[in-house]
Amino acid sequence: xxxxxxxxxxxxxxxxxxxxxxAETDEAAQARAEDAAExxxxxxxxxxxxxxxxxxxxxxxxVQGVEVAASLIHPGHSLDRESRTQGEDVMMPIARxxxxxxxxxxxxxxxxxxxxxxxxxxxxGAYRQRRAEDAAKAQxxxxxxxxxxxxxAAHGV
Length: 157
Known about the structure:
Radius of gyration: 23 Å
Shape: elongated
Strand content: under 5%
Distance between the termini: 27 Å
Structural class: mainly alpha
Helix content: over 70%
Largest sheet: none
Number of strands: 0
């Protein structure tokens, strides 16, 4: 059981490292998206290409966010390239609709969403910390039990 928890933690760490590596490779796309976001905030799009790049970046970030959330629920879970592409395709119409801006109907509720995300993040962090502590305690108990059995065997018990 303890080994399974360690493997799950390793899988989760590997999934997060993979996402971080993919995010680093997308730095140029993110820079373009930031430029496009500045244009959107100014209410001016120089061209449709910049708007499309912004939408693509938003769709990609949405898929990465879903993947990270899924890996928190099930450590080691990750999407293959085909699933990521499918997710980006599904998210593109929404990303195009809003072009990187928060929809007008959502703005009055942003403080509620922000608070909920913060609370959720704290709860997930606490849950994961508790699981790690429980796994460490179980490993200690297992080691003590193994040592006790070895000592008993040495004394002929």
